[in-house]
Structure formats: C-alpha cells, structure tokens
Design a protein that fits this description.
Layout lengths: L1 H7 L2 H8 L3 H15 L4 E4 L2 E4 L1 H27 L6 E6 L1 H4 L2 H12 L4 E6 L2 H9 L5 E5 L7 E16 L12 H4 L4 E4 L4 H12 L6 E5 L2 H9 L4 E5 L11 E5 L5 E9 L6 H23 L1
Parallel strand pairs: 3-4, 3-5, 7-8, 7-9
Antiparallel strand pairs: 1-2, 5-11, 6-9, 6-10, 6-11
Helix pairs in contact: 1-2, 2-3, 6-11
Amino acid sequence: MLWAIVMAGSISGAARLLAISQPAVSRMLAQTEKQLGLTLFERVRGRLQPTAQVHSLFEEIEKTQRMMQRVNDLADALAGHGAGVLRLASIPSLAQYLVPHAVARFQQHHPDILLRMNAAALPSLINDVLQGEAELGLVVMQTDHPFLKTHPLHTGRMVAAIPGNHPLAGRAQVSLADLSPHPHIVVGTRMPYGMLVQTAFEQAGLPCRMCADVPWSNLACALVNAGAGIAIVDEFTVMGNLWPGVRVVPLAEEIPLHISAVHLAHRPLSRLGTQFLADLRVVVGEAFSAQNQG
C-alpha cells in the first residue's frame, strides 16, 4: 500500500493501482500511521509526498525482503526442492552481451538452476557482493579491494559510436582529434567510462564538446542511433550491435578496459559460481577472437 501511494502520489492513484476503493486505501494508511506512531506522508500542492521516515522504512523492508529471499533459496536447496541458485551482479555494459551469452551457455548444462541477476553501477554492485546479495560480481576497471578476490578476464578498449550518416562513419579508424569538434555524448562525467574519456581529451589537449551526460553506454548508443551526437563507449556494449544506425569505429588512441569477476575473499566460490566463471571465460574468449578475426 505504501509503495502504491509513493508511486501514484495520491490516494486515488494508489487505489487505481491496487484495484481497491479510495476509502480502503485511506483506512489502511491511517491504521499504518497509528500503529507506527509516525506521519508517513505530507500533502504538498495536492500531492502526497513521502516523509524521510517512509524512505527509511522502505530501505529496511527491502533489506528484510532480500534476506528472506536468500533464506528461502537456501531452505529450498537443503530440502532438495531445486538444484540451486546462482546470484550474479553485473555492470550494465557487460550485461548487454557477454553475460547473457555466458548465462545461456551455463544453463545448457544446468537447466534446473535458478538465476538471480542484477545490473547496477559499480559502487552498488560492489556493495551487493560485500553484503552477500550476489556471489559473483562482473565488473570493469575495478581496483584492488581488501575484502574481495579478483579474477581478471580480459582487457578490452573504448571505441567510437558514430551515427551511420555522419562524415566520420566511413573511416576505418578515428582519433580524438577527429571526434573533438563534434557534439559528444559522455557516459557519466563522474563515472569510470566518462572520466576515462574526459581525461583522454584533456591529456591530448583537446576539448570535448559534451552535448549529453548519460549513465549507461547503451543509452549513449541509443542517442547516437537517433543522431543526437557521437560517443566513445566500451566495446562490450556494442558487441552484436543492436543499433542499426550506429557505426562502431576503432579509436586510434588506446583506452584500455579491464574486465574482471569479484567475490568475497574469505568465502570461496561455490561450485555453481566456479562453473559460471569458467563459462564466462569461454564466452569472453570466443567473443574477442571472433571480433579480431572480423
């Protein structure tokens, strides 16, 4: 009920989401506030705005739900009601192509395994691994962490994503100097990919004409596909190019990207985690071998 009110911003909207009457939602909210002794929503310009207590409550409920999910998964495994659960977390760029293909390969030999997978930015992903929400985290540009064991997988690079009708689209290779005069979509000015690109332009003594700042490489590619500008993105996102209007062109400058898998240093990988990591290594090797041959 609280979730519905937050999403809808009103009692009437929450009632529509829950398919119940407005008075029923009002009664439920009043009872909840009375039981907790808290005011959960404030009326601002005709809308219900959640108080800080609601956000804190949601965080605790979410933690409890995740913990109960892990307990239920373990109970099912111990009772023999399933072959097991594999918990993965991946940054979005690896989740675009490489990780799904590794999952498909893994499931060919483990069809009864339940996969729980989340895609998140690096800080959230590392926290998920540290908190036990994910057994294995799949990352790029992760530095050494005292509580994590790192398994290097491959070193890739940044590439240029250019609209198909752009004057640079037909080049076999482009340089930062070639790209500098054109409107640029940056993948996170405060995130690893964006910072790498901005640093590369700065070190070359060239301006980066930023026209958009987006959090993920796939969103940058969608904008390039629509002709909104050019972007320098990781090559993992554009494998099996899903955007017909995007031309992927190698960069003359080398901007390396290191793929790795991480897990808790004090807890060895499970049998399932070890097998998935082996399948991921095969998929990564095959993908880059095919790319180099192409």
